[in-house]
Amino acid sequence: MASLTVGSLCKPTSNGLSILVTSSSSLSTGAHASNFLRISKVENNVSAQFQRRGYKNHFGQSLHEPLSLQKMDEEKFKLNAASTNNPQFDATHDLVKPTESVISFLEVLFRFIRPYAAVGTVLCIASMSLLTVEKLSDFSPLFFMKVLQALVGAMFMQMWVCGINQICDIELDKINKPSLPLASGELSMTTAITVSALSAIMSFSIGWIASPALFWGFVGWFVVGTAYSANLPWLRWKRFPLTSAFYMLCSRALVVPIGYYLHMQKSIHGGSALLSRPILFAVGMLSAFCISTIFFKDIPDIEGDRMHGIKSLAITLGEKRTFWMCIWILEIAYVAAAFFGATSPITWSKYITVISHLAMALALWTRAKSTDVKNKDAVQSMYYFLWQLFFAEYGLIALVR
C-alpha cells in the first residue's frame, strides 16, 4: 500500500578485492545489488585461493602461475550473467517485496483493530454461544457454522468501530496513544477510511445472511460505536461519562452479546430464553466490567482529554478517586457473583463460580494496592490487567448454570 513503508534496499559495500567489470549496458539495465554481492564473495574466495601454495584454482592453473586480468574479467562476466539470468533467483527476488508488503500491512491492521478489544469480542461470542448448549449433540455442524458467521461479522464490525475512533481521534491519539497506526503515520487516512467503510459493509452483509438477531446486533453496535467517536452534533459520546458508559454497556453487555445469544439460540433450538439464570448473570457481570473499564481507560489519557475538551470522569473526580471507584465496582460484582453461584443447583457450577470469583477478587485487590496511580505506565498496565480479568469472566460465564 502507498501509505506503508515497505522497506529499503541494501547497498553492497566495496573493497579492493571486489572490483566488478561490467559493460555500461549491463549497469543501465539495473542489475540487482544482490548479484554484485555474490560476485564480490566469489572474487574474495578466488583471491584467497591465490595465496595458498600447492593447490589448483578453478581455472586449472597452478598458484605459481599468474592469473591474467583478461581471464578474471571473463570469469566475472560469466558469473554475473549466470546469476542475472537465473530465473529462480529473479522469481525469488520479485516475490520478496510483495510478500513483505502484505505481511507489514496485515501487522498494521492487527494493531488498527486493537488486539485486546478483538480478543474480547471473540471470547464474548464463544461465551454466549456456549450458553445455548444444553447437550453434547448441540455441537453440530450448524452450531459451528453459526459461530463462524458471528465471529467473522463481529471482526469486521470491530474494525469499523476501532477505525472510526482512530479516524476521529487522530490528533488526540498523537498525544495519548502515538503508537497507533494512524497516529504514527503507518496507515494513511485514505486507507483507514476505505478499510473501515468496507468492513462495516461486510459486517452488515454477513449479519443479513446469517440471522435477524445477528444483523440487528451489528446495527446496534454500528450506531453506538459511531455515536461514541463521531465529532458531530449530539454525538461524540466519549466527551461525557454517562454517554461513554451507555456505549460500553450496549456494545459489551446488552445489545451485542444478547444479539449473539439470540442468533445461536434460535438457530439451534428455534427459540429464546432471555430471562434464564446464565443470561441474567452474564448481563450483570458484563455490565460491571463495562462501566469499570470505560471509566478506567480515561485515567492515563487525562492530559490529551483535557486539551481537547473531553470531560471524562477521571478529569472530574481526579485520578485516584476514579481508580478506586472502578476497583470497588468490580470487587462488589465479584462478591455478588460468588453469592449468585452459591445458589446454583448444579454442584460443579456452584464450586467453580464461587471459588473462581473470590480468587479473582483477591488478585484484583492485590494488584490495585501495588499500583502507583500517578505513574501513567503503571495505570496503563493495570488497565490491561482489567481486560485480562474481563477475558476470564467470559470463560466463567459459559460455566454458570
TrEMBL record:
It is a multi-pass membrane protein. Keywords: Membrane, Transferase, Transmembrane, Transmembrane helix. InterPro entries: UbiA_prenyltransferase (IPR000537), UbiA_sf (IPR044878). It is found in: Plastid, Chloroplast membrane. GO terms for molecular function: transferase activity, transferring alkyl or aryl (other than methyl) groups. GO terms for cellular component: chloroplast membrane. The keyword Transferase applies. The keyword Magnesium does not apply. Signal peptide: none annotated. PANTHER family: HOMOGENTISATE PHYTYLTRANSFERASE (PTHR43009:SF9), HOMOGENTISATE SOLANESYLTRANSFERASE, CHLOROPLASTIC (PTHR43009). Belongs to the UbiA prenyltransferase family. This is Phenylpropane-specific prenyltransferase. It comes from Artemisia capillaris. The gene is AcPT1.
